[in-house]
Amino acid sequence: MQQNLRIKTGAIVAIILICIFGIIGFPKSLDGLKANVQRNIHLGLDLKGGSHLVLQVQVQDAAKTTADQAIEAMREDTRTRNIAVGGFDRNDPEQLKDADTIAINIHGVDQGKTQLFRSLVSEKYSDWILTPVNASDYRMTMKPSTLLDLKRNTVTQSLETIDRRVNALGLTEPTVQAHGDPATQSEILVELPGVDDPARVKDLIGATAQLKIVEVKNEGPWKTREEALAGKGGILPLNTELREYMSAGASGGWYLISRSPVITGQDMRSARPAADPDSPGRWETSFTLSQDGARRFEKFTSANIGNRLAVVLDAQIRSVATIQSTISDSGRINGLASEQESQDLSLVLKTGALPAGIKYLQERTIGPSLGVDSIREGILSGIVGLIAVIIVMLIYYKKAGLNAVLALLLNTILLIAALAYFSATLTLPGIAGIILTVGMAVDSNVLIFERIREELRTGKSIPAAVDAGFGKAWWTIVDTHVTTIVSCLFLFLFGTGPVRGFAVTLVIGLLANVFTAVFVSKVIFDWELSGDKRVTALSI
Amino acid sequence: MELFKNTNFDFLGYKWPFIIASLVLTAAGFVSLGIKGGPKYGIEFKGGMLMTVKFAGTPPVEQVRQVLTSALASVPTVQTFENGSNEIVIGTEGENDNSLGRNRQIVVDTLAKTFGQPGSGKLDLNNSSSSALASRLLEPLQRAGVQLSQVEVEKLSASVMQYRDERGGLLTKIDDLKAVPGLTQQVLTVLNQESYVAPYTAARDIEIVGPKVGADLRQQAINATLLALGGMLVYIWFRFEWIYGVGAVLAVFHDTLITIGIFSLMDKEITLTVIASLLTLVGYSMNDTIVIFDRIRENLQLNRKETLQDVINRSVNQTLSRTIMTSGLTFLAVLSLFLFGGPVLHGFSLALVIGIIIGTYSSVFVASPLVLFWHNWADGRKKKAPAVAGAKARS
């Protein structure tokens, strides 16, 4: 009996030591202790400040781009094969849920070449399903498997690009991960602890950054789009489009540019910010091209000296320049308003373009000052609650109350240590969970103590009453704990971020409670009753 | 010390007044919900933007409401906290995802125009990031002859902002920054030239939720609550008789309804954390009920002659001391959270404070009578059944 008790006590002391080590490590000084606690306890965004963003990849953009590329290629292919075609167009799905409806319409195919046209499609456009509308018109829809691949690739690529951009910001422990069902939701979760300037970072992450360098047709610029259209007699020449020139937020007129880019963002090797040498106070971003891109750029510029080139970023012309001489591997975007803008532009150019636009579904940004306040208030309310409970327990149950208080303190230490060992995140609702555990933890002790008192009243001897009290309260404790854990399970399954943190702390607290209130408390009672003398009174 | 020793209250004898009280409370909640068109959902459930703005003094609520109403397309809500902190919450409801982001910018700009000095060309220390401060100070410091490298200026800016954030995110005057280590008089002069402190900070807490996410979250919350109740019903069914499960779940459902009703009566919002606390209450109130049921089961096994009403009464009396102690202690912990836990947890702890009172009450006065009602009804039917059969045989 005595030896058994010693083994149990040894186990409890060992567990206490392991827990304390998990929380504070081996500190050499007070500062070291603080640093260790900060390293071991992972604070959630709501306590340390930062941004929690949920964004949705607009997969329909990628579907439209793919359709546009197919149209361009078909124009070329039908021309080289002498198949006369009236025209191509595609529908314009605006919402993510309509991405599946992407379709290309082909009008006025030469009826004599029907067979040739069909074999062209089945040979080179096997990702598409061709359906005849009438004798000369056709409609092409994307194969479901291709569409699924496209969606998946678009989301994966966006995730990688956003990850590169977020990492380039130099924050500690940012998170970028897929969110929700990847096949249907196309959502990405971004968590940015300690972010300094959330609005700017949001723009930075969301910039599509699709860059291209295109030829400017030798007309214009026009003041407005309408004027430009009127100047061209209402119809734009084949393979051209109108784009606005924007410089430092002001319009610089509309230009007619080629749809086929000479250089795209994929040809980019590096980019860096610099002061604009031509206009003081303005900034620019200069970039260099990859080998392959440089070769194409050189060939194009040497053949087009005297013509103009435009740098187009996300459907806006950012600079227009006349080709003075052959350029091989570099270019610049000038007229930026601030150093910040040129830095951000270099960052997004370096990290690559997003394959589709993104939309923010949700944002939560906690300022660092609120996080500091929340920690202080959480700790204050925890300590006040704990002290209140301890005082009442000591008054009501006297020495047995001390037993419960020891179990309660151990319960709290176990809970915090478990959070540290599992690298769980402590959130503000998590702190509330700890405080609530304090209240619920004493419940097990109360159940047992009340039962012991009842058993004593029936005239049982003290050791028998203690044993009966623990024995009879056991199943009640199991029942109450299991039901609470069941409700926490659903909180965890359906909740997000902070709410999950709450469920996790409450469950760990309840499990630790079974150990402290039943096992540790019993050992303490056993010590009290284990002397040689016959115990005649129990302080309870 | 013992407060409830060998009590013998006739709880079930007085069940009717309590059941009527429960019904009245539930009905009051329903009426309030009906008049107000359902619960008042927080921003995360309906989509919109919430921005917490902290002022140096008493917030000029009316002025804020006025300038924002004229700047925004829709009328914003401006709320204060009861606990006397100088904070307000500005809310705009979201029509679509684009307007939400725009609204945020409009609110920030309007506040700066009304309470800051945007025309002065100076940087507002209370509403700027440390990187903005660093790039702002770099040149003026060099001009003033302060020998600091770019890295050192960035470090200094970061410690200025840390000093600010540790003091609630608001500086009242720039000269207070003297306490920041490494900040010399020279730097202070430059800071005074280049920056000012506005009497507010908008960088406390911003929440933007798109309307689609809001609807999804609402559905998730309802699913979570119903599934949690279902899970518990199954567990109690498995451990006791099915009617005990039904009684416990109905009692807990009653608690949830009344708490939501009281929130509606008090005009408080149901947020995601309030849902979390409702689910905690479900577990907690269930605890209380199960302790009593456990005792009823035990007493029924010991004594088969007593009527069920007497057994239930005795069981409630035997567990009364525990019920009051546990509820009282949990109440203390939760009350401390309510009083000292800060504005973010206000709704959460309020729901717990209300719910613990209701949950304790319902375990005694709702769950047990329901079990008794069922058994009396079932017994009555058993007695009646042969008579009916007999009547049939005679005809």
Note down, in words, how this protein is organized.
The complex is a heterodimer of chains A (540) and B (395). Chain A is of the alpha+beta class and 540 residues long. Chain A has three domains: 210 residues, Multidrug efflux transporter AcrB transmembrane domain (Multidrug efflux transporter AcrB transmembrane fold); 89 residues, Hypothetical Protein Ta0175, Chain: A, domain 2, CATH 3.90.1070; 159 residues, Gyrase A, domain 2 (2-Layer Sandwich), CATH 3.30.1360. In chain A, 53% of the residues lie in helices and 21% in strands. In chain A, strands 7-8-2-18 form a four-stranded antiparallel sheet. In chain A, strands 3-4-6-5 form a four-stranded antiparallel sheet. Chain A is elongated, with a radius of gyration of 35 Å. Chain B has 395 residues and is α+β, with helices and mostly antiparallel strands. Chain B is built from twelve helices and six strands. In chain B, the strands form two sheets. A four-stranded antiparallel sheet of chain B has the order 2-3-1-6. In chain B, a hairpin with a 6-residue loop joins strand 2 and strand 3. In chain B, helix 9 packs antiparallel against helix 10. Chain B is elongated and about 100 Å long. The C terminus of chain B is likely disordered. The interface between A and B is large, with 79 and 87 residues. Strand 18 of chain A pairs antiparallel with strand 6 of chain B.
